[in-house]
Design goal:
Shape: flat
CATH architecture of the domain at 46-60 and 93-299: Orthogonal Bundle
Distance between the termini: 23 Å
CATH topology of the domain at 46-60 and 93-299: MetI-like fold
Order of helices and strands: HHHHHHHHHHHHHHH
CATH class of the domain at 46-60 and 93-299: Mainly Alpha
Largest sheet: none
Low-confidence stretches: none
Radius of gyration: 27 Å
Length: 322
């Protein structure tokens, strides 16, 4: 016959097993809880969401037309009429910042999505099939990585012109290699799993195995890479616009505002501070979000048990209770 102490331990184990098994959580629910507990990631999410909302409702928020020239109010200081002042030809700085967020964020998300799509397809093919296909694709990636991406971007845009479509395409073309290597590494490991052999045995096609089974298990690192790629794309666009090869007037972007302000860094440096601060905050927010997603999907992260639950267990099963 079991002693009272053994019965208490057994009952505690049953209660804990029931509590953890009664409400099973998916990997996405667990990841969201971990992400939500990361205050830096949540802060970055709030900042990025604010910029996205500003870009969506730019026409309703902006007080002036960003392309309107008012030479009578050129280089006006911040005031009631113009909250952040005007530039050297009288355009409202705040309105240009608001409309510039549309181009900068659009470039960031489009380039990240295109690079992830292209890199995922090439990496999945290389990792799944292996052999000479893997060798050819990986050597092509090595060749692409041997070219300085900035100089290649400048060369292409100088030849074909500073078109928005060309800007997106060249940034995608020079930004997919890291994603391809990441996906290839994941597929090389996943293709050896038993469920892949079982799928092959029942006649599932290679493409269905790749994109319906293996890709699901490689989603987490791809999401992290895509998130971090948004910040990199914004910085690349800003750098090209600063060199005069990005978005052209009358459209505006944060990088173009830096390009217009660099000639007046000594006389009016604040014109470069505003777009630089927007680029800095956006990229910092995206990096915080990427780090939070990476930590949220990390299986080595320990599960945190609420303090209230621990206190309840101690009060219920402590040997020192009366």
């Amino acid at each position: 016959m079991a002693s009272p102490e053994q019965s208490g331990v057994t009952q505690m184990a049953k209660d804990m097993a029931t509590e953890f098994s009664s409400t099973p959580e998916s990997i996405w629910t667990q990841a969201w809880k971990r992400f939500r507990s990361n205050w830096l990631a949540m802060g970055g999410l709030v900042v990025l969401t604010a910029f996205i909302l500003i870009a969506i409702f730019a026409k309703q928020i902006a007080p002036f037309n960003p392309a309107k020239i008012d030479l009578l109010n050129a280089d006006a200081p911040p005031g009631a009429g113009h909250i952040l002042g005007t530039d050297l030809i009288g355009r409202d700085v705040l309105s240009r910042l608001i409309f510039g967020s549309q181009v900068s964020l659009l470039v960031g998300f489009l380039v990240a999505a295109g690079a992830v799509l292209l890199g995922t397809i090439i990496g999945a093919i290389a990792g799944y099939f292996g052999g000479w296909i893997d060798t050819v694709l990986m050597r092509f990636i090595d060749v692409m990585l041997s070219f300085p991406s900035l100089f290649l971007n400048i060369l292409v845009l100088s030849i074909f012109g500073s078109n928005f479509l060309y800007l997106i395409l060249i940034l995608v073309f020079t930004g997919w290699m890291g994603v391809a290597r990441l996906v290839r590494g994941s597929f090389l490991q996943l293709r050896e799993m038993q469920y892949v052999e079982a799928a092959k045995a029942i006649g599932v096609s290679h493409w269905e195995i790749m994109f319906n089974h293996l890709l699901r298990n490689a989603t987490a690192p791809i999401i992290v890479t895509a998130t971090l790629g948004v910040g990199g794309a914004i910085l690349n666009e800003s750098g090209l616009s600063f060199l005069g090869l990005g978005v052209q007037p009358p459209a505006t972007s944060w990088g173009q505002m830096l390009f217009n302000a660099h000639e007046y860094m000594l006389s009016n440096p604040v014109l470069a501070v505003y777009p630089g601060a927007c680029i800095f905050l956006t990229c910092l927010a995206v990096n915080f979000i990427g780090d939070g997603i990476r930590d949220a999907f990390d299986p080595r992260q320990k599960t945190r048990i609420p303090k209230g639950r621990i206190a309840a267990w101690r009060a219920r099963y402590s040997k020192s209770r009366a």
